Amino acid sequence: xxxxxxxxxxxxxxxxxxxxxxxxxxxxxxxxxxxxxxxxxxxxxxxxxxxxxxxxxxxxxxxxxxxxxxxxxxxxxxxxxxxxxxxxxxxxxxxxxxxxxxxxxxxxxxxxxxxxxxxxxxxxxxxxxxxxxxxxxxxxxxxxxxxxxxx
Length: 151
What we know:
This protein has 2 helices and 7 strands. It is mainly β. Strands 1-2-7-6 form a 4-stranded antiparallel sheet, with no helix packed on it. Strands 3-4-5 form a 3-stranded antiparallel sheet, with no helix packed on it.
């Protein structure tokens, strides 16, 4: 499915990445593993994924092209017994989360079957709002005319 963003871009400058982003969203993102996204402060967030059975060594986090990729791969272990029912999904997974501009992944920890990823918005000074001085060129031109000439 393709979306036409032309009406949105009539007054927007530099948002061409939005159209590319919409084209890369998978149609069926899947539901494994389940996750939460929490806003923990003015500019901070926490992503929590339910990763029962995974250890820190089984999880890989990568940030690339404004995306956080979380992958889980379990090492093969010898089965201790025969499963009569296997309701705990311990299968490999890859989850992709799109990060807004200036989002920085600060760290991650795993405890009690939950992987927590700390994310913060860090806006550089050059990207913060700044006031631009407006100069009245008519006053500057008349001031130049009124200057006394050197003899």
